[in-house]
Amino acid sequence: MKKNVLVIGAGGVAQVVAHKCAQNNDVFGDIHIASRTAEKCRQIVASVHEKKSLKGPGVIEAHELDAMDVEATKALIQKAGSRIVINVGSPFVNMTVLSACIATGAAYLDTAIHEDPAKVCESAPWYANYEWKRREECAKAGVTAILGAGFDPGVVNAYARLAVDDYFDTVDSIDIIDINAGSHGRYFATNFDPEINFREFTGRVMTWQDREWKINKMFEVRKDWDLPVVGKSPSYLTGHDEIHSLSQHLDVPTIRFWMGFGDHYINVFTVLNSLGLLSEQPVTTAEGLEVVPLKVVKAVLPDPSSLAPGYTGKTCIGDLVKGTKDGKSREVFIYNVADHKEAYEEVGSQGISYTAGVPAVAAAMLIASGEWDAKKMVNVEELPPRPFLDLLGRIGLPTRVKEGESDQPFA
Amino acid sequence: MKKNVLVIGAGGVAQVVAHKCAQNNDVFGDIHIASRTAEKCRQIVASVHEKKSLKGPGVIEAHELDAMDVEATKALIQKAGSRIVINVGSPFVNMTVLSACIATGAAYLDTAIHEDPAKVCESAPWYANYEWKRREECAKAGVTAILGAGFDPGVVNAYARLAVDDYFDTVDSIDIIDINAGSHGRYFATNFDPEINFREFTGRVMTWQDREWKINKMFEVRKDWDLPVVGKSPSYLTGHDEIHSLSQHLDVPTIRFWMGFGDHYINVFTVLNSLGLLSEQPVTTAEGLEVVPLKVVKAVLPDPSSLAPGYTGKTCIGDLVKGTKDGKSREVFIYNVADHKEAYEEVGSQGISYTAGVPAVAAAMLIASGEWDAKKMVNVEELPPRPFLDLLGRIGLPTRVKEGESDQPFA
Fold first, then answer.
1. B295 and A286: CB-CB below 8 Å?
2. B275 lies within 8 A of chain A by CB
3. Strand residues in A89-132 grouped as ranges (E)
4. How would CATH label the architecture of B155-348+398-409?
5. What class does CATH assign to B5-150+353-393?
6. pLDDT reported for residue A301
7. Which of A84, A399, B34, B168 could cross-link with B63 by S-S, CB 3.0 to 4.6 Å?
8. Which residues form the Saccharopine dehydrogenase NADP binding domain (chains A, B) (predicted)?
9. Residue A245, phi-psi category: left (phi > 0), alpha (psi -120 to 50), beta (remainder)
10. What is the CATH number of domain A155-347+400-409?
11. Does the global pTM surpass 0.80?
12. What is the C-alpha separation between A186 and A198, in angstroms, rounded?
């Protein structure tokens, strides 16, 4: 049993991860939280104590760490005796944290694909640009590295695996749908790091259609859904991490991702993007100061974690899978509904952070128990989905399955 | 006769001023152009030669100058032997350039009110915050300083004076209307320095109504006009320089300023302003860089002078004056229509720069001739309007007067 966990990052998702690890510290042992700003880690530790989240007596400690520094990260893993590293920091640090894990033999997991701050939307499949180049290295060292173990990517990959294995003989298409029907009451805000959020939408939209990569522009293709709980929801075809692994691991001709956006979000995004304010390339002011516009936009927007107290409403994220079973066509929607206010009451974060953080902890628990301790680099759809979904149901993100008029809890 | 002119600034308005001075170098003698970036001045000089704008053989020279530096500005005035300084640089340099003029005895004129980079919309009347504090200093030195000698403020002040003197016994209201019905073909651009442009609209809207300052919010009060040439035009109540002198110098109970805006401009402005991106107060990025958002917005927007080549359409700016004459109520619209393409063909700038720059040159010519050499600080409405309007008619900005069905050139 792998013990002692190191959480990297101190944003809204890290807050959820810390609380959930604390709620399961019989599994995890010591909990360490590290980020560039130690104060933010200390606030998370204080919040864990305040909400009495620790299941039993145990260690929870804050650390200052520049996770771009492999040696410093290795040293902290060793000092803390951590055998599992949950990386929910900026996606810019994924590769350096992975290096530290390989060097120390600790298991690694993250919730979003690695990014280079200077590039947007590289060639498909994205995982081949950085992560998969290191598969052999992980296998050789016997190090477990689980990529994209949040909700999307993460839980939706497990839903896809489940559908292919248990619900269908052949799958024609998987449409992953992510709707946030919540309200934060601000003029405008992003639900996670604005820099990362906007980067998702400034590049090309790449999707997998008829076994080929297809390119669209953002907000070019709209589809309106009628979903459980959240009701009628407009969404737009969006490029997203999980398409880049599911398309390579599952025999499914069409895999698309749809993200829900309201008109107001699209208007603000369009204005900022059209003006060049979402660019990751520096501009020079009249006074000669070199500055990246996107970083200034991030600086003026609300800190996503500040939205949590007033956030109301629900999210609905799931996989709409179409195919055939026993010679008949079949359509199944496998999904979860989460509530912003309940998330805040439990762990002090809003629903978007909750849905990303809880699966990472579930995956870490399965590494600890050995069920997902793969000793190599894997994406979530390469692992058995049932233990993951069962555990998620117990720790806060129950799965439901809708087929025709039937809408049942997954069991 | 005052000779030799120094133009401060190298933007679109300075380009117009340089060409118009060159076209009248029999009046002006040597022409010097100075700005922070000497290269921009050299480009203007090259454009003057290219368009063969010099009326007769003469000097036109470019200089590098930090106009915030009084001593350097004095030295250049003395070296160039300039007796008239046309300040069309940033409104942040007005007071330092004025100091250099007072010290050297050169006449001063500008086209916009002085601003402190760190403040927006100070107490009314605005001219009392900086300019009018120096009236005695100018009078004592016998230095002519003409404030706000562009189109608005400037020509519209002369229209107001003319109306009060010649067209009415009593004036009830003056509505100054500024409509740009032109099109630059870009997603979004401002017609002059974005920093100055946006600053006009981020503060409170102050207008003079029933002999009192009245406060509104920007885009709160809309009025649609049906104007000569440009036709139906939506406009919004806007705070503007000229209200702050006309209200003090003319016996008119209500003086308002209306600027034309399309829905697209308002949407972009509202998004940027609501997010805090138009703030002149610095923010700090996650990386610790301190930066003024408005300066970054300026850096990503098109350089206003780059709009000129493709600009089409017309502007209409004028004073709608209501009052009584010989016991009867009367309503007169005194106005000018300018054409973007014609301006570009003549002087290489678009119409907004043209309407701001030509009046400054006309005012300078009247200083040179002695007609407007007031030997003290004045606003345009304190000077006789007819010589100014006559001269403007000859050098490119003819005035028209509309009353009922009659619409005649001013004579």
1. yes
2. yes
3. 107-110
4. 2-Layer Sandwich (3.30)
5. alpha beta
6. 96
7. B34
8. 5-146
9. alpha
10. 3.30.360.10
11. no
12. 18
